[in-house]
Amino acid sequence: LGPEDRGTVQDVVDRLYSAHPKAIEHLLRGDSHRPNLLIEDDAVSFMLALIPVDDPDDAVRHLSFIIGKNFLVTAHLEGPSQVVDDAFSHIQDNNMMSEGVDFALYQLVTGHVVALKGLVNGLDEKFEDMHRTLLEHPYRDLSPAILRLRKKAMAAKHILDPEGGIFELLKSAGFPYVRKTNQPYFQDAAFLMDEVVGEVQEIRDGLAE
């Protein structure tokens, strides 16, 4: 579901299962929430987010999911999603439609982590540039730039912490909508997320020194 589908979200979900109002709220009002998770009897809904790095005025972009036994809904109502486009292109190009909704979910969440990795790399590059500047000009006042970068790293950590918990759930043996044969894929995705979280923490620690 993209921006043009905002008015049909309720109807689409109602045809799949009896959703809790909070599940619909996650889809429709992602711009007002951190990443979050809702476990229901017939489905699990959750929301992931990408933070802006270069332009502080950019809004956080959200990607919402509802997965059930035989269905998967994605929603990116704030604008186009390259993650969704790339994942479904990969599935279609490689004739993987029969692999199931959990495999599609894996492609999506892995694409999301790759996108997060790119954003975190941007933070790391800014940190390294600042470090080089400090070595070349030890008496230059970099405190405003350090403060801006610390705020960005804190915002990233604020988002990544709950996302890490979502990935831990997706890889767990008790998650009902991922088949045992596909659990190793989600374990890999959770490992990649752990790496991203660790990189942000290293940047924060470096800025605090």
Description:
This protein is of the alpha+beta class. The protein is 56% helix and 11% strand. It has 6 helices and 4 strands, in the order ααββββαααα. It has helices spanning 9-14, 21-28, 82-93, 101-136, 143-171, 183-208; strands at 37-39, 43-50, 61-68, 72-75. A 4-stranded antiparallel beta sheet has the order 1-2-3-4, with helices on both faces. Strand 1 (37-39) and strand 2 form a beta hairpin. The longest helix is centred in the middle third of the chain and has 36 residues, at 101-136. The termini are far apart. The mean pLDDT is 82.
How many DSSP helices? 6
Please list the strands of the largest sheet in the order they lie side by side.
1-2-3-4
Counted beta strands: 4
SSE-based structural type: alpha+beta
List keywords for this structure.
6 helices; 4-stranded antiparallel beta sheet; alpha+beta; 209 residues
Topology, please?
Blueprint lengths: L8 H6 L6 H8 L8 E3 L3 E8 L10 E8 L3 E4 L6 H12 L7 H36 L6 H29 L11 H26 L1
Antiparallel strand pairs: 1-2, 2-3, 3-4
Q: In a few lines, what is going on in this structure?
A:
With 209 residues, the chain is an alpha+beta fold.
